[in-house]
Design goal:
about 325 residues, Rossmann fold, five-stranded parallel beta sheet, two-stranded antiparallel sheet
């Protein structure tokens, strides 16, 4: 199911608001420059005069002469446009200060390129449907600015990882920061494993905030929410709340948290493989977190899911004490 009528109208209002805001900014700029120099209005009046003269000349001339008229018009208008840019520069403004303002230069803030939805339309739709309900409040408290190593012990070496929880987290932290900084340059998937309370969800929220702040679209869902979305669509469950799972493919980043908490069966295995495979083909990154060890993931999911995870995901294992318990005991 696509956006509801209400949601679609909300997206289109967003574009209306963007265009209105940018038009007001442009109007204010025009009035600012007009107050600084009367030459601006003179240039614009000349543009109007030339355009009217050309229109009249076209009506009176034969079609064979129309190309000459177009060339003369184009030459005069280009000269006036350069005069305007020279004027702006002389007033200490950028040469494009009075150009049309668009948040999205591809669709000019309409949401559509021809009959096709622009990528910015999809981003706004994703934000509308998922961001506010799943991430907005969480990432206020869980982000890189609030991250700390204080909860990770640096005295006991874990025999599995052959390092301490602190040093391991320092390594993982460096990897996820690199994931963010290279997000638009490198295609990377992350599989974050570890017991409850060791910081898996906190890290994914840190990543989500950085990418949302840089205008990327992010969908965050628990594993249960993720599979329920497909069930709603495929089996007509809870029809009022059916979501468009196409956005799971379109989002710049898809995060599935707490994989393994859902009831695993052949259906959930097929849906998980579908998303992993399709996003891999499209070079769209995913982050999956699980309270399972890697061998438990192999036992729980189909061979092709497990194989794809091992071959296409960077494995980040976390360990340590349950931070939530440490925080409670600290108060």
């Amino acid at each position: 199911m696509a956006l509801t009528n209400t949601q679609y109208a909300s997206v289109m209002r967003t574009f209306d608001d963007l265009r209105s805001l940018n038009n007001r900014i442009l109007d204010n700029r025009y009035e600012e420059i007009k107050a600084l120099s009367p030459k601006l209005e003179e240039i614009d009046n000349k543009v109007i005069e030339i355009s009217l003269e050309a229109a009249k000349a076209k009506i009176n001339k034969s079609s064979n002469d129309s190309s000459d008229i177009d060339n003369i018009l184009d030459s005069k208008l280009k000269k006036l446009e350069q005069d305007k840019r020279d004027l702006l520069i002389s007033l200490g403004k950028p040469a494009n200060y009075l150009d049309e303002i668009y948040n999205c230069p591809k669709c000019h803030d309409t949401g559509f390129i021809g009959q096709q939805k622009c990528s910015c339309f999809k981003k706004i739709a994703i934000d509308l449907v998922y961001r506010d309900s799943n991430l907005k409040n969480i990432i206020k408290d869980e982000n890189f600015d609030t991250f700390t190593y204080k909860w990770y012990d640096d005295t006991v070496i874990d025999p599995r990882f052959k390092t301490t929880a602190r040093k391991n987290m320092e390594k993982v932290y460096g990897i996820v920061r690199k994931f963010v900084s290279n997000f638009d340059k490198e295609f990377t998937n992350l599989l974050i494993t570890g017991n409850t309370g060791v910081g898996k969800t906190f890290l994914t929220n840190c990543i989500a905030k950085e990418l949302l702040d840089s205008s990327h679209s992010v969908i965050y869902l628990t594993a249960i929410e993720f599979f329920e979305s497909f069930e709603s669509r495929d089996f007509n469950k809870d029809r009022d709340n059916v979501v468009d799972t196409q956005y799971f493919l379109d989002a710049d980043l898809l995060i599935i948290d707490d994989l393994g908490t859902e009831n695993s069966n052949s259906y959930t295995n097929s849906r998980l493989f579908y998303i992993i495979n399709e996003r891999s083909i499209r070079k769209k990154p995913m982050i999956i977190s699980a309270n399972l060890e890697i061998n438990e993931i192999g036992d729980r999911y189909s061979e092709r899911v497990f194989s794809r995870l091992l071959s296409s995901y960077k494995l980040l294992g976390l360990f340590g004490q349950d931070i939530r318990i440490l925080k409670r005991n600290n108060h």
